[in-house]
Amino acid sequence: MKADPRPPAHVAHYVEALGRDRAIRFLLEFGGAELYIATAPKGRSRLSEVIGLDGAAALAAIAHLLPKRVPTAKPWIAQCLRVDGLNVAAIARLLHVSDVSVRKWLKRLPAGTFEDPRQMRLL
Length: 123
Description:
The chain has 123 residues and is mainly alpha-helical. The protein has helices at residues 9-18, 20-30, 46-61, 74-83, 88-95, 99-106. The protein folds into 2 domains: 9-65, no CATH class; 74-106.
Protein backbone atom coordinates (compact mmCIF):
# COMPACT_ATOMS: atom_id res chain seq x y z
CA MET A 1 0.00 0.00 0.00
CA LYS A 2 1.29 3.44 -0.88
CA ALA A 3 0.56 6.98 0.27
CA ASP A 4 -2.98 8.29 0.16
CA PRO A 5 -4.03 10.61 -2.64
CA ARG A 6 -4.07 14.24 -1.59
CA PRO A 7 -7.61 15.38 -0.79
CA PRO A 8 -9.04 18.03 -3.12
CA ALA A 9 -9.50 21.53 -1.73
CA HIS A 10 -13.26 21.22 -1.27
CA VAL A 11 -12.86 18.31 1.20
CA ALA A 12 -9.50 19.20 2.74
CA HIS A 13 -11.10 20.78 5.83
CA TYR A 14 -13.13 17.63 6.48
CA VAL A 15 -10.03 15.43 6.19
CA GLU A 16 -7.99 17.69 8.47
CA ALA A 17 -10.71 17.70 11.12
CA LEU A 18 -11.78 14.05 10.96
CA GLY A 19 -8.91 12.12 9.47
CA ARG A 20 -9.12 10.27 6.18
CA ASP A 21 -11.24 7.27 7.18
CA ARG A 22 -13.85 9.17 9.18
CA ALA A 23 -13.98 11.86 6.48
CA ILE A 24 -14.75 9.19 3.89
CA ARG A 25 -17.45 7.68 6.11
CA PHE A 26 -18.90 11.19 6.64
CA LEU A 27 -18.85 12.03 2.92
CA LEU A 28 -20.47 8.73 1.96
CA GLU A 29 -23.24 9.28 4.50
CA PHE A 30 -23.96 13.00 4.04
CA GLY A 31 -22.42 13.93 0.66
CA GLY A 32 -24.72 15.90 -1.62
CA ALA A 33 -27.09 17.05 1.12
CA GLU A 34 -27.36 20.19 3.20
CA LEU A 35 -26.25 19.58 6.75
CA TYR A 36 -26.71 21.65 9.88
CA ILE A 37 -23.77 21.29 12.24
CA ALA A 38 -24.65 22.24 15.82
CA THR A 39 -22.20 24.55 17.56
CA ALA A 40 -22.25 22.31 20.66
CA PRO A 41 -23.10 18.73 19.62
CA LYS A 42 -24.74 16.62 22.33
CA GLY A 43 -24.43 13.18 20.76
CA ARG A 44 -28.07 12.68 19.78
CA SER A 45 -27.75 13.51 16.09
CA ARG A 46 -27.17 11.29 13.07
CA LEU A 47 -23.87 13.13 12.61
CA SER A 48 -22.69 11.96 16.04
CA GLU A 49 -23.78 8.41 15.24
CA VAL A 50 -21.71 8.32 12.07
CA ILE A 51 -18.48 10.08 13.11
CA GLY A 52 -18.74 10.15 16.88
CA LEU A 53 -19.19 13.01 19.31
CA ASP A 54 -15.55 14.09 19.01
CA GLY A 55 -15.86 14.16 15.21
CA ALA A 56 -19.02 16.26 15.41
CA ALA A 57 -17.24 18.64 17.79
CA ALA A 58 -14.29 18.87 15.40
CA LEU A 59 -16.64 19.81 12.55
CA ALA A 60 -18.44 22.30 14.78
CA ALA A 61 -15.12 24.02 15.42
CA ILE A 62 -14.57 24.59 11.70
CA ALA A 63 -18.22 24.97 10.65
CA HIS A 64 -17.57 28.56 9.52
CA LEU A 65 -15.18 27.19 6.86
CA LEU A 66 -17.54 24.52 5.52
CA PRO A 67 -20.21 24.88 2.83
CA LYS A 68 -23.86 24.22 3.70
CA ARG A 69 -24.07 21.39 1.19
CA VAL A 70 -21.63 18.56 1.87
CA PRO A 71 -19.52 17.69 -1.21
CA THR A 72 -19.55 14.15 -2.59
CA ALA A 73 -15.86 13.92 -3.61
CA LYS A 74 -16.45 10.57 -5.30
CA PRO A 75 -13.26 10.65 -7.44
CA TRP A 76 -11.06 11.16 -4.37
CA ILE A 77 -12.96 8.53 -2.36
CA ALA A 78 -12.55 6.05 -5.23
CA GLN A 79 -8.81 6.69 -5.30
CA CYS A 80 -8.53 6.21 -1.52
CA LEU A 81 -10.52 2.98 -1.64
CA ARG A 82 -8.32 1.67 -4.46
CA VAL A 83 -5.20 2.43 -2.43
CA ASP A 84 -6.85 0.50 0.43
CA GLY A 85 -7.07 -2.53 -1.87
CA LEU A 86 -10.69 -2.56 -3.05
CA ASN A 87 -11.27 -3.62 -6.63
CA VAL A 88 -13.05 -1.50 -9.24
CA ALA A 89 -16.37 -3.35 -8.99
CA ALA A 90 -16.51 -3.01 -5.20
CA ILE A 91 -15.72 0.70 -5.40
CA ALA A 92 -18.42 1.20 -8.05
CA ARG A 93 -21.02 -0.54 -5.86
CA LEU A 94 -20.03 1.45 -2.78
CA LEU A 95 -20.20 4.80 -4.61
CA HIS A 96 -23.30 3.89 -6.70
CA VAL A 97 -21.56 4.65 -9.99
CA SER A 98 -20.50 2.60 -13.00
CA ASP A 99 -17.19 0.79 -13.27
CA VAL A 100 -16.39 3.05 -16.23
CA SER A 101 -16.55 6.12 -13.97
CA VAL A 102 -14.33 4.46 -11.38
CA ARG A 103 -11.71 3.51 -13.98
CA LYS A 104 -11.70 7.07 -15.29
CA TRP A 105 -11.15 8.45 -11.79
CA LEU A 106 -8.40 5.93 -11.08
CA LYS A 107 -6.48 6.98 -14.19
CA ARG A 108 -5.74 10.23 -12.37
CA LEU A 109 -3.70 8.40 -9.71
CA PRO A 110 0.04 9.03 -10.05
CA ALA A 111 2.05 6.08 -11.33
CA GLY A 112 3.13 3.73 -8.56
CA THR A 113 0.42 4.84 -6.13
CA PHE A 114 -1.21 1.45 -6.06
CA GLU A 115 0.50 -1.93 -6.05
CA ASP A 116 -1.71 -4.83 -7.02
CA PRO A 117 -0.87 -7.76 -4.72
CA ARG A 118 -1.57 -10.18 -7.58
CA GLN A 119 1.10 -8.61 -9.77
CA MET A 120 4.50 -10.33 -9.68
CA ARG A 121 7.56 -8.16 -9.14
CA LEU A 122 9.80 -7.61 -12.16
CA LEU A 123 13.07 -7.79 -10.29
